Amino acid sequence: MLQVMDDLTTPASLTIYTDGSVDPATGAAGAAFVSGQTTKQWRLTDGASCLQAELVAIRGTLHHALESHSPHVIIHTDSKSSIQALRDTQSQDNIHLLTSTLLLAQRLAARGCKITLNWVPSHVGLSGNEAADRAAKSAAALPSPTTAVLPSLSQTLLKIKSASHALSRQQHEATVALSSPSPSWYAAATAYHPLPQDTSIPPHVRDRLHRLRLGFPCFEEIRQGDVDINCDHCQVTSPFAFQHYLLKCKATSHLRERLPPHPQPGHPGAAAAAAAVIRSVTLATLTSTVREYPPPR
Fold first, then answer.
1. What's residue 261's pLDDT?
2. Distance separating alpha carbons of residues 294 and 202, to the nearest angstrom
3. pLDDT at 258
4. Which domains does the chain have, with CATH numbers?
5. CA distance to 10, 19, 27, per residue, from 2 (Å)
6. What does the mean pLDDT of the chain come to?
7. Is the pLDDT at 198 greater than 50, yes or no?
8. Cβ distance 272 to 240 under 8 Å?
9. Is the pLDDT of residue 4 over 60?
10. What was the pLDDT predicted at 75?
């Protein structure tokens, strides 16, 4: 690695190390470059990503290069993602950062300056890289932002999704407070944890899992109201099909082996107890159960 870096360097070249840093605890972000005795730092607006911090640092080096009038600028970065983003001709995100950086590179190229963007591994003892790392962390700790960074498209979509989920849960909890049966079942059965995206679960089995988690009435219950439904696995009839399937059916007895005795289907607390059975077992156990013994429909 040192030999490669030496081969890039000439007496007339300007060598710069860049780095970006994000504090995961606070969301504060910093960017910096180090070139010889020169260090430049930027505190970014909170919530900036590591990629954005790295790009700000690279953009700052190009501004510095424009002032240096060096014929060859060598930028060492430990961010492969920033190099890839600058190479991507069809980027859909961080457009402002990328275009402003590339415009500076074009200005340097038009002046006859050669630009070398070189990846170096982090934390392997390269003094320039370590100095840039310290400077970026120090920049993130500055009291207030010095450089505004627009939210990326992915960050914006994530905020929208998060806000949508929060509102949806708030509305659902309000419905649970009114003792609505299906919302109450879902809250008790899932604790609002989403069903993991597991491609190994066939779609028809996944549909069965969703049915148990949602607790909607069976078709005959919807069509005829309170009606006895015959269990396909133990031939017992009950007007509370899902409760029977989870609390009393012999085919699913393994789901409740370690749980205390449950009330009879239809008795007070039976719905909450049935939903709690779903929540108490692993996804693998529940998946294998609904695969072999489908719940009522």
1. 86
2. 13
3. 84
4. 2-151 (3.30.420.10), 179-292 (no CATH)
5. 14, 19, 34
6. 90
7. yes
8. no
9. no
10. 96
Q: Is the pLDDT of residue 159 over 60?
A: yes
**In angstroms, rounded to a whole number, what is the distance separating the alpha carbons of residues 120 and 34?**
14
Gyration radius from the chain CA atoms: 30
Phi, psi of 114 (to 5 degrees): -90, 135
Among candidates 148, 138, 140, 131, which has minimal Cα distance to 43?
140
Query: In the block, which residue shows the tokens 């081969």?
Result: 7
Distance CA 224, CA 201 (A): 33
Alpha helices in the chain (DSSP H): 2-8, 50-68, 80-87, 95-110, 127-140, 153-177, 181-190, 203-214, 219-224, 241-247, 270-280, 283-292
Q: Quote the tokens at residue 131.
A: 């100095």
- Asked whether the beta carbons of 30 and 138 are under 8 A apart, the reply is yes
Which amino acid belongs to residue 68?
S
CB contact at 8 A, 20 and 52: yes
